[in-house]
Design goal:
Blueprint: H1 14-20, H2 26-39, H3 43-49, H4 55-66, E1 69-70, H5 80-83, H6 88-94, E2 96-102, E3 105-110, H7 116-126, E4 129-134, H8 137-148, H9 154-165, H10 176-191, E5 194-201, E6 205-212, E7 215-223, H11 227-238, E8 249-257, E9 260-271, E10 274-283, H12 298-308, E11 313-318, H13 325-336, E12 343-347, E13 358-361, H14 370-377, E14 384-387, H15 393-404, E15 408-413, H16 421-427, H17 432-438, E16 439-451, E17 456-458, H18 463-466, E18 479-481, E19 492-503, H19 506-513, H20 518-527, H21 533-542, H22 548-555
Parallel strand pairs: 1-4, 3-4, 11-15, 11-16, 12-13, 12-14, 14-15
Antiparallel strand pairs: 2-3, 5-6, 5-10, 6-7, 8-9, 9-10, 16-19, 17-18
Helix pairs in contact: 9-10, 10-11, 14-15, 15-17, 17-19, 19-20, 21-22
C-alpha cells in the first residue's frame, strides 16, 4: 500500500507575504488589487507606484516568494571574465547581471525572477545552468552602469552635436547626438532626484540647472550653437509648436527609468537671449502614501483622520507651490477610497489616475474652470469632492454650499498658515456663518531638507540661529550632514514635510462665528494641542533629523 503524503501548503501570493511581513496593510493591498484590475499592471509595480513599499522590500518579498536568494549589489565585486559572459546591450535590455560562476553554473541577478524569456535567452547565449537571485530594479541599473561603464559621455555627445550644428555631418544619423544630449540631461535629473530642470540661454552659453531637495544646483553648460536644436528637441517631446518662439507655451511628455514612469510638464518662455525651458518632473511613485508615512505628529494625524471620517465639511490644505499639498490630498483620498463611496475630483492638472475615482481635467480655453467643473460635479451624485485649488469667490462659494449639503470637500489654498486662511476666505465672499458651519479644519505644510544619514555628525548650531530660540528650546541632539559621495557632498538627502493643523473644534467654531480676532482663535487652538510649523520643525531638528538652520530657514522664525 502506497503511503499517502500530506499535500504541501499552498504557496502564498505576493500580497499576502507583504501583509504578513507588516510592509503593507490589508486596506493597501485591497486598493492595489483594484488598481491592478483596472490597469493590468503587475501588483508589485502598483505597490511601489502608490508608495506602499520600497523597491528593495518588494524585491526581497518576490525573491522569497520564488524561493530564490535576495542580494545587495552595491558593494559586490564582479570579476571581469564573468561580466564578459553577457553583452552590455543584452544586460540592459533584459535587466540582468551575471554575478559569479561555479563550474558550469552562472549566478544571475534579475529584477523579475519570473521572466522566463530572459532566462531562456541567457541560457542559450552562455550554454550554462542559471542560478537566479533577486535584486531591486534600480540597483541593477546602477550596477550595470558601474560594471560595463557609462555609455558615450555627454561631453563626447556635445562635441558630435557641435560638428552637426556647424554642418560638418549630414544624414538622418546627424540628429542622433542632439537626441542623446537631451536624453542624458533628463537621465541625470532622474538619477539625482531632481524635481525641476532649467534650460536657460545666456549671451554665450546655455545654462542647465537642477532643483534637488528644493535647491537649484548648477549643471552642464551647453554651447550656444546647440541652443536651437536642444529647444527644438524639447518642444517635439512636449508636443508644442516648434516654430513658435514669441509666445509662452506649455506641454508635457513622459520618460522612463527602468520600469518607473515619470510625467514631465514643460514650460517655454521667450527671454532676452532666446527661450527658457523649465521641466517639472513628477515622480508618481512618491505621489501617494499612507497618512502614517507623511511625517505628521500624533496630534495632526489623529485629527486629520477624524476629519476624513466625517460625512461632510470642508478640509483645506495650504502652503506654497512645491510644498507637498498634492501628495497629502492624494494620500487622504487614497485612505478613504472605497467601493461604497463616489469620489469626484476637478484638477489642474490631473497628477495621477486613482482607481474608482472620477477625475476631471480643467480646460480654461474650453470653459471648463474649477467653478464650472464643480457645478457639474454636484450633479454627479458625489460623496466626496476634491477641488485642485480654490482660486476665486465662485469656487469658494460653491465649495461651502456643497459641504453644507452633505458632501466632504477637500481643496488647497495659498496662504502662509492655517489661521490666515480665514480672512482669505472671507475676502472671497464666504460669510462668517458659512465658514463656521462648513469648515472642518485647515492644514498647512512645508518641506524641509533632511540630513544625509551617511555623513550626519553632531554639531553646534550657528550662534545667531540659537539666539532666535527661547532658552528652553536650545537643547537638542543637533546634527548636520558634512557631505559625502552618497549626497553629492551637499550634506542633504531628501526632504520631508512639517505640519500645522487648525482643527475646528466646537470652541473654535464658535469663535469663527462670533468674529473673534485671529490671535484669539490661534490661542484657543494651541490650548487644544496645536503646534505651529516652526515647533514641528524644531522638534525634528532636536532629534538630529534636519539641521536647526533648515528649521529656521523654512519657517522664518521671528521673535
Amino acid at each position: 500500500m502506497v503511503e499517502a503524503h500530506p499535500a504541501p501548503p499552498p504557496r502564498k501570493l505576493l500580497g499576502e507575504r507583504l501583509v504578513d511581513r507588516g510592509l503593507i496593510t490589508e486596506r493597501q493591498l485591497e486598493m492595489a488589487m483594484r488598481e491592478q484590475k483596472r490597469t493590468g499592471v503587475m501588483l508589485g509595480e502598483i505597490l511601489t507606484q502608490l508608495g506602499f513599499v520600497t523597491p528593495q522590500s518588494l524585491s526581497a518579498a518576490l525573491a522569497e516568494q520564488g524561493g530564490v536568494q535576495f542580494v545587495e549589489l552595491a558593494d559586490r565585486l564582479i570579476p571581469l571574465e564573468v561580466v564578459a559572459l553577457i553583452p552590455e546591450n543584452l544586460a540592459r535590455r533584459l535587466l540582468v547581471l551575471p554575478l559569479d560562476t561555479q563550474g558550469q553554473e552562472l549566478t544571475l541577478a534579475m529584477a523579475n525572477i519570473y521572466d522566463i524569456e530572459a532566462l531562456t535567452e541567457v541560457e542559450a547565449l552562455t550554454r550554462m545552468r542559471i542560478k537566479i537571485v533577486g535584486a531591486p530594479e534600480e540597483d541593477l541599473h546602477s550596477k550595470i552602469n558601474e560594471v560595463y561603464g557609462e555609455r558615450k559621455s555627454i561631453e563626447e555627445l556635445i562635441e558630435d552635436a557641435i560638428q552637426i550644428a556647424l554642418g560638418n555631418k549630414l544624414g538622418v544619423e546627424s540628429e542622433i547626438p542632439i537626441v542623446q544630449v537631451v536624453d542624458q540631461l533628463m537621465m541625470k535629473a532622474l538619477k539625482e532626484r531632481a524635481t525641476d530642470v532649467h534650460v536657460q540661454p545666456s549671451e554665450r552659453t546655455v545654462i542647465t540647472r537642477y532643483r534637488v531637495d528644493g535647491v537649484l544646483q548648477q549643471g552642464l553648460s551647453l554651447p550656444k550653437t546647440l541652443q536651437s536644436a536642444v529647444l527644438a528637441r524639447l518642444k517635439i517631446m512636449s508636443e508644442v509648436n516648434i516654430a513658435e518662439t514669441r509666445q509662452p507655451q506649455d506641454g508635457k511628455f513622459r520618460i522612463s527609468l527602468g520600469r518607473r514612469q515619470f510625467d514631465v510638464r514643460a514650460s517655454f518662455l521667450p527671454c532676452t537671449h532666446g527661450e527658457k525651458a523649465v521641466l517639472r518632473i513628477l515622480d508618481k511613485s512618491k505621489l501617494i502614501m499612507g497618512l502614517e508615512q507623511l511625517g505628521m505628529t500624533p496630534f495632526v494625524q489623529d485629527h486629520f483622520s477624524a476629519m476624513l471620517a466625517r460625512p461632510h465639511g470642508v478640509i483645506l490644505v495650504t502652503g506654497p507651490t512645491g510644498s507637498g499639498k498634492t501628495t497629502t490630498l492624494y494620500s487622504a483620498l487614497n485612505s478613504i477610497n472605497t467601493a461604497d463611496r463616489c469620489i469626484v475630483t476637478v484638477e489642474d492638472p490631473v497628477e495621477y489616475e486613482l482607481p474608482l475615482i472620477t477625475q476631471v481635467q480643467v480646460n480654461v480655453k474650453a470653459g471648463l474652470t474649477f467653478a464650472a467643473g464643480l457645478r457639474s460635479i454636484l450633479r454627479q451624485d458625489p460623496d466626496i469632492i476634491l477641488i485642485g485649488e480654490i482660486r476665486d469667490s465662485e469656487t469658494a462659494s460653491i465649495a461651502m454650499r456643497a459641504a453644507m449639503t452633505g458632501h466632504l470637500v477637500l481643496s488647497t489654498l495659498h496662504t502662509n498658515d492655517p489661521v490666515s486662511s480665514l480672512p482669505r476666505l472671507l475676502d472671497m465672499g464666504v460669510s462668517r456663518l458659512e465658514l463656521a458651519a462648513a469648515l472642518q479644519g485647515i492644514h498647512a505644510q512645508r518641506l524641509v531638507r533632511v540630513n544625509c544619514p551617511a555623513c550626519a555628525q553632531p554639531c553646534e548650531p550657528e550662534a545667531e540661529v540659537l539666539t532666535l530660540l527661547k532658552p528652553a528650546q536650545r537643547q537638542g541632539t543637533w546634527m548636520k550632514g558634512q557631505g559625502c559621495e552618497q549626497c553629492k557632498f551637499t550634506g542633504i538627502k531628501g526632504r520631508r514635510a512639517i505640519h500645522d493643523l487648525l482643527y475646528v473644534s466646537p470652541a473654535i467654531r464658535e469663535l469663527i462665528a462670533s468674529d473673534a480676532p485671529l490671535a484669539e482663535i490661534e490661542g484657543q487652538a494651541r490650548r487644544e494641542g496645536k503646534a505651529n510649523l516652526f515647533e514641528h520643525a524644531l522638534a525634528i531638528a532636536q532629534q538630529g533629523i534636519i539641521p536647526l538652520e533648515e528649521a529656521v530657514r523654512v519657517t522664518m522664525v521671528e521673535e
